[in-house]
From TrEMBL:
Required co-factors: Mg(2+); Mn(2+)
Protein name as catalogued: Acetate kinase
Source organism superkingdom: Bacteria
Class in the EC hierarchy, top level: transferase
CC cofactor note: Mg(2+). Can also accept Mn(2+).
Function: Catalyzes the formation of acetyl phosphate from acetate and ATP. Can also catalyze the reverse reaction.
Residues reported in the UniProt entry to bind ATP: 19, 213-217, 287-289, 338-342
Organism of origin: Streptomyces auratus AGR0001
Protease among keywords: no
MF GO annotations: acetate kinase activity; ATP binding; magnesium ion binding
Gene Ontology CC: cytoplasm
Amino acid sequence: MTATATRVLVLNSGSSSLKYQLLDMHDAARLAVGLVERIGEETSRLVHTPLATGGAKRETEGAMADHAAALKAVAAELAADGLGLDSPQLAAIGHRVVHGGLKFTEPTVIDDAVLTEIERLVPVAPLHNPANITGIRTARALRPDLPQVAVFDTAFHTTMPEHAARYAIDVATADAHRIRRYGFHGTSHAYVSRKTAALLGKDPSEVNVIVLHLGNGASASAVAGGRCVDTSMGLTPLEGLVMGTRSGDIDPAVTFHLKRVAGMSEDEVDELLNKKSGLIGLCGDNDMREIRRRIDAGGEDGARAQLAFDIYIHRLKKYLGAYTAVLGRVDAVAFTAGVGENAAPVREAAIAGLAQMGMAVDADRNAVRSDEPRLISPEGSRVAVAVVPTDEELEIAQQTYALVSA
Ligand code: ADP
């Protein structure tokens, strides 16, 4: 790495998608952002926004057979803006990796041995790690000389005490198959809990925060003095809160019942709970905007949307109560991600009735729209309720840059 190398490319590889951001860590500025969708199909699409040049968004359609083709297309777009991947200013590539197991507690420079370890985790993250591995292989092939760093969704949660991370099942079976609570969205929980402390003018070590990451996937975490002590997602991202398409918490016997009584296969149950449950399963929509619109329109359809909303809120309240008990003292509750940052009715409903726990929302503050971290609790509240926009790409870039510039 040269002294002038301050840029980091962040890659988030999904099974058929590749999201990327190029940041300059000199001032944390975003130089370019983009997304390739439908990789492997005839209709792959690349949307590239060159923020550094202030140029217009560019869209390219056409078959991109695999992640290698997609990354080459991204590299060509960046080169067209004078931001090519061969630039000496590029310090590193940071990869989002969903599952790091117990092994990876920190961001890690990727070598062959690390890649092998990430591959060993595929059985516990069959939906996510393979795509992340493909992204890493592709990027390494393109720039073999450049440091590449894996930043794990699970890492922030590895501080959980054993009594929070272990399921109450036979220990030998659990250990043989690495079954335990790992938790996900860790870069977001880390970033948001730190930002929340800053909003309160405190050091992270001084505050206890409940973070509610409410996107299409959703998870809660209890963070005590900057360290995660519990989180709602488990072995996989299926556990916990009601999500866009995932059920969250459910009696595990439901899965036996679906197989034995409803005659569903393993894959069908997996698909039902991961893709056809949560908000979409309850009311046919997983976008909170649409659900609110239907509630406002009323009638029978509105009642169906209202029930989905109520189930979503009820689960949030249960976690707020549980994590208040786990933390003992709560200084702040932070709402983040698509729903948490934008849906004022969700924030209002989740906190309603929790005065006994020192939590309240001020209607005027809650109605404010902003990209900045902000308090929505009334002046003098015992617990600060806040909206704290997350930035997983910036967190990945910062962790990557810190590691390679150390
Ligand atoms: P993910 O990263 O998990 O795909 P996001 O954090 O981007 O998801 O959140 C996406 C979700 O945020 C959408 O499905 C929608 O429910 C919700 N959302 C986005 N914008 C708004 C808004 N203005 N009002 C209410 N909900 C919103």
